[in-house]
Structure formats: structure tokens, C-alpha cells
Amino acid sequence: MSDSKAEASTTPCQKPIPKIKDISMMKAWKDSK
After folding, report:
1. Which of 1-17 are b and which e, b meaning 16 or more Cβ less than 10 Å from the residue's Cβ?
2. Which of 4, 18, 26, 29 has the most beta carbons within 10 angstroms of its beta carbon?
3. Is 18 exposed, middle or buried (0-12, 13-18, 19+ CB in 10 A)?
């Protein structure tokens, strides 16, 4: 989570992209479980 925040800070233009990726990963993780 920290990495995602740091990345968003360095790339304010791509702020929604990392968030979406996180959601996708979470969804996949939940599905896997």
C-alpha cells in the first residue's frame, strides 16, 4: 500500500491508474481465496 501511495505522489497524472490496479488485484485475491 505504501508503494502505491509513493507512486501516486510521483505521478499525480496517473493517480487513478494505480488505484484501479489495486482494486483489480484485491478482486483477484478475493476470488483466489
Report:
1. eeeeeeebeeeeeeeee
2. 18
3. middle
Which residues lie below 8 Å from residue 8, measured CB to CB, with a gap of 6+?
Answer: 14, 15, 18, 19
27 exposure class (CB count in 10 Å sphere: 0-12, 13-18, 19+) = exposed
How many other C-beta atoms lie within 10 A of the C-beta of residue 25?
A: 11
Q: What would the grid cell of residue 10 be? A: 510521483
Full-model pTM: 0.38
